[in-house]
Design the sequence.
């Protein structure tokens, strides 16, 4: 249980660092770290197949694609970098505090349900396993895909200035 809390805390910290850093390379490294920690959590939840896919695709392949994309971008001037960093820090200054407060309130006032993993069975049909036994895995993957889509849309959105 303690290791799970440590992994979740490190996952949250790396996700915040990924969002708050101004340098794209640091964001990609933070994303890879977040994905690797998530793979470890998935493995601890007896979902090794999902963990392997998370580690290989999200932490490996997606990071390589992002690093390649970042290498094709132009560097901004030092002055513009300082202005963008200040704007970003002001925009996300409240984010860690809100996450900490919400986390403390959830731990204190919300009774967290204990999810039980399904019993290991000798089911050979992947469709039966995914649709009947691994609902939380599917929900997690859908949330990750939707968050990735929104992240790409926000990242490539042209500014109106």
Sequence:
């Amino acid at each position: 249980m303690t290791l799970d809390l440590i992994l979740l805390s490190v996952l949250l910290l790396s996700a915040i660092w990924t969002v708050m850093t101004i340098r794209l390379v640091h964001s990609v490294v933070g994303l890879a770290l977040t994905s690797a920690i998530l793979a470890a959590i998935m493995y601890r939840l007896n979902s090794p197949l999902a963990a392997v896919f998370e580690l290989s695709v999200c932490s490996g392949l997606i990071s390589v694609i992002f690093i390649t994309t970042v290498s094709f971008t132009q560097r901004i001037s030092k002055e513009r970098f300082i202005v963008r960093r200040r704007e970003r820090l002001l925009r996300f200054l409240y984010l860690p505090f809100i996450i900490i407060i919400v986390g403390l309130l959830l731990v204190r006032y919300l009774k967290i349900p204990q999810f039980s993993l399904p019993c290991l069975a000798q089911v050979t049909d992947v469709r039966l396993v995914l649709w009947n036994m691994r609902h939380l895995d599917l929900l997690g993957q859908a949330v990750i895909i939707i968050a990735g889509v929104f992240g790409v849309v926000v990242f490539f959105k042209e500014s109106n200035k």
Q: What stands out?
A: Residues 85 and 155 are 16 Å apart (CA to CA). The first helix runs from residue 2 to 20.
